[in-house]
Batch of 2 targets.
Target 1
Amino acid sequence: KHEILPPGEEMAERPRWQERQQLARLCDLVADSLLPHLESEPLATRRPQLTREEERRILVALSRVNKAIRGWDDDEVDDGEQGCASEQIVSCSEEAHSCCLPPDHHFDDGFSCLANIISIVVGLLHLCSDYIKHSAGNILMAISNSLMKFEAVWIQFVELVWAAIHTVSTCAHNHSTINATKDSVGCSSAAESISHDTTTKSTSITSFIAVLKLRCVNTSRQIMTCLFRVLHIILKLLKLNDSEMKDDFICLSIHHIQKLHWDPGYQLNAGKVVSIVTDDRHSLSKDAAQFGIVSGSLLQLFCSLFEQSDTEDTDRRDIFVKLADAIPRLATFLQEQQDIPKSLSQYSKHKILMLMIRLKPHIQQNCSHIVCLLKLLRGHFQSPLHEPMFQHSTKLENCLEGSPFLLSGVSLGELQDKSTRHLQRQAMYLFLSCSIVLACSGDDSRLKCSCKRDQCCHKGQGCTDNCNYFGLSEISVWFQRCCLDKILDSKSSTDIVLCFLQLYMEEDDMLFIILLQLLDAPLISLAIDKMETKWTSELIGAKLFSIVFDPVHIFHQWLSLLHYDHLVLVDYLISKDVGVHCAQYLLRCLRLVSGCWDAFVDDSVYEAQIQKFNCKRQRTLKNINSFTGSSMGGTKLGSSHDKENKSKKQLFLSAKVCLLSLKRTLEDLHKKDLFPYNPKPLLKSLSRFEELCAQY
């Protein structure tokens, strides 16, 4: 019997009974179809292993449930039909519907339906069948889609999925570190922490955890992998549909990720856990792989929360900065994952580097966060960061990459693994980006710094000087270790630039962000000149880096690697992925060329700078112990890579033809309205370049 409400209140009441009706339908469908498969045996004798026939029956039931839920979304009932149905199904407290929950575990306001649905579906995830896990995850995604029109209920659904993750996480931790009898205490204590600042009461979370434990016998971390996958796909769908609830999901996920266990003895150290496991069916490699998959799934979700397009979103910056404290935990995360397979280790490193790259724009206003990133790179990414770049020059030009003929021409030992090169590109970009930010931090009044209490890595008096010196010293040590010995061995500076560019030419998106970053290389030399004289000898590597990676010289070498083909530049400019960055780089380079015309026309200016610095360095290195064994005799730095084949003016003439051809092509495309955006700023810069060429 329903009370007659005024028109305004009736409109507000209708969505509420619609929510309860939808929850009741889902609850009945899931409970009737799936619950019998969980309660077919007593709890004490329930086992995760299935016979082939049992697996087939469960998969058929899951398929029917998934199809039914998706059918509701395709065939929505109208308001009149809903009004009739509301007298039959109102809420879980009415006689028309009753949740199949254990005694003393009923909730108010329809929450029991959500608790019942999720506990049943998650309970199926503990079964030893990858097919069942996949199908159950698809049902959770279908339920999410069906509840998305009811925002409050959908948020509770997401919170309960995270509550299930915390429950499995905490219980698995207790099984690994404590006696199994203490496991219930740890599971119930999780409710208080995960319900803080959420819309769900702590008592409701506690009851949900109790129901989940009754239905989920084996708290394997594979359940976490499945749930992370579900959340990741939900986020992808929210972004695809540009849903307004995307921000709610991101905030909620960040809140729960912060509360996940990061204890190195818990989910990060596979070796310790394996030594405690008494089940002989799980080998070391299988258990280590499980840890790698769980961590990889979490990192995949983590990175999806920080899209590249979010780097300029200042509204979310405060939310993202909250995760800066998780960066030191990532160091432990890497350190403890020593037993997982190499492929999973490479994937985890890739995702962590991607996460730090996406997080950096939001945290770089505080120097202490940038210092933390550099320490993380120095401590845990030594291998990709200091991998020799010169292996890239040994590549056959007349053979497609990946061709079997390449393997016959070059031995496997000489070929660098693609994933290793990708990690190297990521690590080097992040390292140079962070170091340059610190090195030039003295000129940016917006930067905050709270790292002066960390005296172990700074030598300056003030906090700003500390950060300046730390950034410069990191560049100096890195460049001396990676490249300076090559120069001392008569490798020209142009060789270094070419090898560096060749490393990044394999990935267009990484290429332009590193090219844009290297435009700030001269600022390093200026920062060193402002420092006290007693420190300059320690920063010789940073000084030489600033000279070797001269932006005008890099621009020349980049065009030469493109074989001065202006159509390649056009392809870059119209690319959806790198077009904006390419346009930014060309605009800044053309502006730089206008101010450094002599250096662009005559590349010997670059060579003279190298030789001039080399003379000073020879005098300085006499008093530096680390270089006493180096021989400088016969070294001629700065000789061009193609000196024997091309004159210095030929470099300029080739670049001139390329850029003027680019100008004519852009003008033609713009007149025909075929260029995807307004190229007038770029055409203006190219016109100025043409004027300078005419005067030369």
Target 2
Amino acid sequence: MSLQRIVRVSLEHPTSAVCVAGVETLVDIYGSVPEGTEMFEVYGTPGVEIYVSPNMERGRERADTRRWRFDATLEIIVVMNSPSNDLNDSHVQISYHSSHEPLPLAYAVLYLTCVDISLDCDLNYEGRQDGNFVDKRQWVWGPSGYGGILLVNCDRDDPSCGVQDNCDQHVRCLQDLEDMSVMILRVQGPAALFDDHKLVLHTSSYDAKRAQVFHICGPEDACEAYRHVLGQDKVSYEVPCFHGDEERFFVEGLSFPDASFTGLISFHVTLLDDSNEDFSASPIFTDTVVFRVAPWIMTPSTLPPLEVYVCRVRNNTCFVDAVAELARKAGCKLTICPQAENRNDRWIQDEMELGYVQAPHKTLPVVFDSPRNGELQDFPYKRILGPDFGYVTREPHDRSVSGLDSFGNLEVSPPVVANGKEYPLGRILIGGNLPGSSGRRVTQVVRDFLHAQKVQPPVELFVDWLTVGHVDEFLSFVPAPDGKGFRMLLASPGACFKLFQEKQKCGHGRALLFQEVVDDKQVQTISINQVLSNKDLINYNKFVQSCIDWNREVLKRELGLAECDIIDIPQLFKTERRKAMAFFPDLVNMLVLGKHLGIPKPFGPIINGRCCLEEKVRSLLEPLGLHCTFIDDFTPYHMLHGEVHCGTNVRRKPFSFKWWNMVP
């Protein structure tokens, strides 16, 4: 129980006070005391509990057990647990005594009206046995935690509306309410109390910019009945007279957690005594609830796919057909962005990242629109944002972005345990430069946003050695049937040279790369012998291998991986403008749809009628129960410095694990 306030009694006239059910009230009996007082007695009507606290060491005792020696250090505490039926229908009586007088020297009476007030929400404490004793003013992480959860209402449930649902102060369709959290104000007590008392719902100006509240003031099936009462420019709302025991409010988030916002939002209801016309209203009691805005969560490639996105451009018909067939095998929906909308920008992975937000009552997919702003820049907002599909973006104020701000440079690992800490939703992986260097990094506003979500703490890898500079150029994750649940694939020049050396020893040194590339006069074939005798190529790939090995050690440390969790995929790189790019189609830059993998066709050396690179990859991945499909992306993607993963995007099933059950 929390302390309410101090009420002073008077010998001259009875005193009236309002108390709140379950909340302690201190009664000051020392302000007006008859001369000669040595002792006192305290009694209350039924339903009034009275305690005397002699000191902190002795705790408290029931007041009606004995006569008390008059001592100004004694505290008298009154508690009522049930609301009153009428005004002043309970009271406390104090009698003052002297050892020299048989009768009390005087009496003081305190009339009480008890009202029960609570501001409540779904505190989400399913795992707790003591749900009645949680502190609503706190928000606690973990399986035994509790606290309200808000979704950023960033979808657009009314397609005819031009903005997201949380960008105005209206409920435009009833489906919009499903994205909001319910907050309930419960009041029990005499209605006459509110003739000179009032209830005010309020929040801080800081929190008002990050959430808003609607009060239902009419028929539930009418949008106009939902009145905007808090949020943005409104920080307080006097609740009108009650017509029942409770009032319902609907709360939506306006902002995701970010560098200047922890995600916590508080709402309060305060009972004010407005009975004295000569003074401003005085507070009697405040109740508080705390919400946390649900974080934006990424989904790793090991989660089941729901929908695949691909762009149709002037020269990728066969590629789109191959992706469509893979999606069909995986049993997921295919969405094709037509050329009229993509304006020949095929890099749909770079444009956006598909994730979700979740509360106990609702899970909402949310697209994170990258700041790259190519010709696809309108696609996430105009085509994906809609009913039950949200949208968020981050743009640097100076609009200075680099290739690292494309979302091929934004990945997430499967769930891991590292250094004794569990990451049940995995860890975000972004590419940057080496510590202390001045190379390219992801723009600050994007990094701030990702770190602020808390549930997938980012790991920054070294990618500035790459021409494009994306983490998906040298790593990916595939599902595995064992306890770990996945394997990490790393591009490996060392593994490629080893494979080619083995083939050379077997007499296949003349086998040619790129022999099967169709209709591309820019590509010249090259034999295994020529590759293995090219010192510049070998030396450059030793440098590339050292860069990948740096990241390998970071990933092992930050994701808790062992060597057995990593598969080296043969891959060579070449230099362009002193940065690295794939020498042949980048095998790790693949589309993962459950057990079905869409892998860039490498056009490696043909030995005994088969591509030895394809055969090697199959031998590494098919024992995991994976099905390898090699997709020709050479002309429409590889020649433009991208591959299958760069040209596709996937919406996946959310984690079964609930984010609020983790401890960041």
